[in-house]
Protein: Hemerythrin family protein
Amino acid sequence: MLKWKNDFEIGVDLIDSQHKHLFEIGNNAYELLKNDLYLDKYNKIILIIDDLRQYTKYHFKCEEDYMLKTNSPEYIIQKKEHDGFIKKIDNLNLDKIDEDQQKYIEDILSFIFSWILDHIIQKDKLIKKQSI
Structure:
């Protein structure tokens, strides 16, 4: 489970609130991983992936619009990374979920949290820095 910290804030309220929601999606995956009441988690995994796919598309559009509005020199780099993230989500092999559902959730968690943390801390902080 990952807790939101003020260190993750980039100083743009809309983007910060959206980042918090991305943490919630990751934490939903974590809760599913730890939940032993579900013997078959396939449908729940699909819901988390769909939520992640839809929300990141919305979030990335907002972030990119903000960067264009503020003439951020980070736009092209960010756009490429955003497109890569979406491509990876779109190309997830859903047929592999049932091979080992717990491992699949762990892999999703690792991907979500490492990407989000790296991206927010390393890249998104530059958005605000450049727009000031």
Observations:
- The chain has a mean pLDDT of 89.
- The helical segments are 13-34, 42-69, 75-90, 101-131.
